[in-house]
Sequence to fold (384 residues):
Amino acid sequence: MEFGFPNSINPLILTNRNEDPDRVFAMVKQVQLDFMKATLSKKMLSICLVLLCQIFLTCERKNQMMPPNDEIKASSKLYVANSGSNTISVIDADSDEVIQTIVVGQQPSAMTFSSPRKQLYISNFLSKNISSVDVLTDMKIDDFEAGGVPLKMDIYLQNRLLVLIQRDTINYWDRPIIVMDLDTKAKIDTLELSNPCAYLNAFAIVSDGKLFGTGFHGPFCDFIPTTPLIYGLTERRILGYMTLAGTELVLSSDEKLICIVGQLHSNFVFDIKRSRYAKVGGIPSLGGYDSLKHAAFSVAKQKIYISEPMTRSLLIVNSSSYAIEDTIVLGFTPASLVVSMDERKLYISAPNENQVTVFDLETKKVAKLIPVGQEPKDMVAVNL
Fold:
């Protein structure tokens, strides 16, 4: 690259011929260096100005394309565990259409979602392991061992996966909760919360570190108050017991109420914010005991929805008065229930029909039938 030099250097060289040549050469080199620095500085400044203008114009175009904050709509998806086809159906919650099918382990049953990790965890009953799925790509990441038959799961402290397992296939009551590190997928602790007089069926963890569990009494053990229980994960000890047992336990999104279902004649609601975790409501069961029975809360509508498989119906319960407001005859056997993120729809899995029913909570009518895999049971709604 050639550079032009100021004319003032020429007289210096011409009129000072008696100067030491080395000194003159050094002076010339210094002038050259100063000139190059000045030239490069001007060029860099021009380049920076051009780049800043481009960045500004790009941001301006993006701002024009982006809708206002109140118009931005989050993406919601529903994940359905098809226990008969070893797959997970991914449903777009806006269109209520299946957009992806993910192959997992044998007989997927329970699921839980980690929002910070954007990962879904699926317990596979027959293959005795757990599958993890990336909800951004809807691709399976890996499978890892559970140490037994995984039954139910929940997340604690973002990186802890608690898994209720059936450790011994002969002793029905041998059901510990395994604590796993999600970074290493290794077991780091075991909570022995079941015994011959009481075994767990389900549990849920609230944000303050309390674990609520429900299950059944063993034979000839009705006099021992062992389930449901409250366990402090921070204290590492049992904090108390609630009366009555069941097959399923559902926590409201505001962490105020727990509904225990699966009893022979009743479903029960507990206020876990009160002292001693008071039972605040009893809801008659229309069909008695059934392992498929499930419940879901709508905090905004102040409703509890309970599936009744034996009578093929849906109970709509007021979560303040605990009175049954309506009984909807569905015409199919319902299982798992999930309220949509906007609380306008209720998704109902139908294992015998291999479909998910979309129930409009405003009109109280079936809005759509979504074909999925075989024997769909557990479902999880995810907001991205």
User: Anything to note?
Assistant: Residues 313 and 329 are 4 Å apart (CA to CA). The first strand starts at residue 76 and ends at 82.
